[in-house]
Amino acid sequence: MKNRFIAFEGNIGAGKTTLVRNLARRWNAKMFLEQFEDNPFLPSFYENPEKYAFPLEMSFLAERFQQLNREVRQTELFSERIIADYAPYKSLIFAGKTLDHAEYGVYKKMHQLLFQQVPYPDVVIYLHIPVERLLKNIEKRGRSYEQDIDPEYLDSIEKGYFDFYRSRPDLVTLVVEPAGDDYANDEKFMAFVDELLEWNWSPGRHVVQQD
């Protein structure tokens, strides 16, 4: 199957999970989602980032590795499409913004050790959403610990993603800015994604626009 393992990436509040749920139903695909709500450190991190950043990122690292290693490898036995709301490198992006230099050095080594055998997606679709829209989405979904997120933090996260993509031209990354506030439930946008996945994309970052 062409483009069998698809991951969607994007900033906090981009709408990745809603879109992935809808596309999984549309494609009858195997879906796996980030289990962030089970992380006991997340609310504490937003209250005291310096104290809780390292345990937060390490716990996310362990959860993501366990899930990707289990789910993707099991599904490799079959021909069905796999769709996820995060990519294996997500941990590196966020840890690079929350950890100090020494902590990040340890973290990066652990990430390399764990993820060297984990399959990467055939295509990652990065959902570029302006910060103003992200803040509206965050407010709308109503998670109390997210309500005071600094817009500059969101800017820094997106910069982290784009810096990473520049450093990894071997990966296939499609950068898309969806039109409309409810694109995750929009039939036209999902049809646009269908069209994107019909192409054989060369490695690198590709900026694509919805007609």
Q: State Rg.
A: 17 Å
Please, what is the CATH homologous superfamily? P-loop containing nucleotide triphosphate hydrolases
N/C terminus separation:
26 Å
CATH architecture grouping: 3-Layer(aba) Sandwich
Examine the coordinates and then state which fold CATH places here, giving the name of the CATH topology.
Answer: Rossmann fold
Total number of beta strands: 6
Produce the secondary structure layout.
Layout: E1 5-10, H1 16-27, E2 30-32, H2 42-47, H3 49-75, E3 82-84, H4 90-98, H5 101-115, E4 123-127, H6 131-141, H7 151-167, E5 172-176, H8 187-196, E6 204-208
Parallel strand pairs: 1-3, 1-4, 2-3, 4-5, 5-6
Textual characterization of the structure:
The protein is of the alpha/beta class and 211 residues long. It has one domain (5-208): P-loop containing nucleotide triphosphate hydrolases (Rossmann fold, 3-Layer(aba) Sandwich). The chain is 51% helix and 13% strand. The protein has 8 helices and 6 strands, in the order E-H-E-H-H-E-H-H-E-H-H-E-H-E. Helix 3 (49-75) runs antiparallel to helix 4, helix 3 (49-75) runs parallel beside helix 5 and helix 4 packs across helix 7 (151-167). The protein is globular, with a radius of gyration of 17 Å. The model has no long low-confidence stretch (mean pLDDT 92).
